[in-house]
Amino acid sequence: CLTLVLDNPLSHALLGKLLPNLKYSLHDNSEKVRSAFLDMLIKVKAARAAKFWDVCNMDHLLARLATDSPSVSKRIVELLFNSFFPVNESEKEWCCRCVTLIQMNAMAARKFYQFAHKHTAPTNIIKLMLAIRRMLNGYIQVGGDLTDINDSNKENSTVEAPPPGHDPAVVSSLLELVVILWRSVEKALKQNEEAHKYTTAKFGGVMAKYFQVFKDERSTAPLLQMASLMPPAAVPTFSCGVLSRLRRMDPRAAPAQYCHLLDCICSWGQTADVLELVTDWLSEALPKQGKKAAKGRRVQILETVEAKPDLALVYLEYLFSHTSTQEKVLALCQGPLKQLHTILGRWKSVLYTHLSSTTEDPELPRVETALNAFTFHARLSAHLQHDLTEGRDYLLSLEDVAGWVADRVLPFLKRLNENDAEKSQQLAARITESFLSVCRDILLVGLADDTFKGQILHLCSLILLSELGYMCIPAVLPILKEVVNSCNDINQDQENPEDTSAVLLGVVANIFQKIIELLARRLKKEPEEGKQLCQSAVPGLTDFLQVAQTWGTAPLSGVFSTVFAAIVVEKRHLLQKITHPEEVIVPQSVDDMPPLSSILLSVVLKSPSVTGAFLSEVGSSLDSEVISSLTELAAVLHVLAVVKHSGRSKGDLKRAAVSVQQQIHSHAVSPVDGSDIQRVIYAASVTTLNKILEL
């Protein structure tokens, strides 16, 4: 509202004194408040009501610019633009303000120039880039120290342009700003061929010298990024050695040492070369059959460069994890990509050798390398399937992998015998979980057809039927969730689901029932291990039930009946073990429930919609008279008591309580008949019921 008041010039004298009291609104927890405060400052500046830096200190504005959201940052840039990019001043002055801003707050400087192109023409951005280049050239030729900068908040104050000198932080920041500015006008540069040629020629002519002089790590990164923005001919000395540097890279190298080199290779249209290098390394590292083949392999490696499969996979990870490089890789013709896909698929044999061997073979590639290659084979299958115009060749490849996991890996998910190695058991679980993780992503992005969904659900069933299949429950639950989600997307506009979807959802409900049975069994046999397993399954259970409740009826109605039955059975068993009336205690929270019930109820109560679906199932089960004994009704009331204390779904809760009320009075226990425990259970149940009905 003060922005409106500022329209009245007579308010300026008073507001100029009052507005500084609002300065901490810049740091308000609410982004809306921060944005409104900055809008007011912009109005203060436009109306010349006061000096905005008197209302809010420049250091505070820059600190917020460095860390805040784009919405807030853009407003701060609009406010400060003339202060640090005075377009009516000389280019020398622009550089001076640039260095001043860097010295005040380097992170804020990066943000400022990231949005600067929104407030001036691309020509001015290019002029600033070239002015920074001249400043850097002057440093190389002359040198000198940074002079003190007039750090006054005064807008457009005249200061002497300092050379960047021997302060490496300022030099690095200037190089970073060139890259930021270049990227902000990259599209405009490409549309103006003459300007593009001029700019690349100017920077290309000094890049070799920059690489010689600016050798620290922070300066090297923006130099490499700058090189990736130019054609390779503009930086011939550097560009001809990039692939060699990637080939000689230490396998333990940090991402900063190779990521910008990969960016350069891809932006120069040489993606096929690095893909060939990766494929060669992965192929050479595979064990060869026979002594003669092994000998030939050693000779070939000595003649070229040692195979580095770990580094090859690291390169692939980077290439496929960033949109710009991923697009360049997938734009290649199918030949190199198919070859890479085939080579990655062969690493299953290395994994199986590790699985089946009881001792370590020093000649064999590391198990981590083989597992990463196996996972990447599945991921690459997804990318290639997405790029297919027709057919399901790569889904078929993934189904073959699912068959391999079932036939070769699951037999190792068993109890250890004397001759078994514990590492094989753990490795089998990791292989299975890695494959399921990729399959979940394939379902998530909509690449899977019904045949693929059926095959993966069949694999999930086989996993849970294996002796130690319960270890993979946290990986199976997301698969169930995504299958339900995908069927929901297909059938949400239809009154009746398609037959295939109904079959798939029926399988999902059966698998979920098996999961609950396995959790209950583990809690009974190994309580501590069972609790850990249940906790690890909580995220998957939460997501699955949230999706399942959107299907109010068949074929997923059995999901909530499974949850309800598991809770009632566990609680009934606990009540039947009571030997003294004093042990009859009505629970107040999920923590008072037995282990499995506690986990399941905590998951159900996280969402009002899931709670409502659960209580609807409680009512349906009571109305169908599936639950009839006093102990079972008491168990139901204990569940309802916990729901009552959570404050969730009061209407559904009361309807479920009414269903209990219609049955419980038939179990009234006379003072003569029945045991003391039965009488106490009945009395406690009636009291609990009455409290719920009072809601």
TrEMBL record:
One of its GO terms (biological process) is mitotic sister chromatid segregation. GO terms for cellular component: condensin complex; nucleus. InterPro entries: ARM-type_fold (IPR016024). It comes from the Eukaryota. This is Non-SMC condensin II complex, subunit G2.
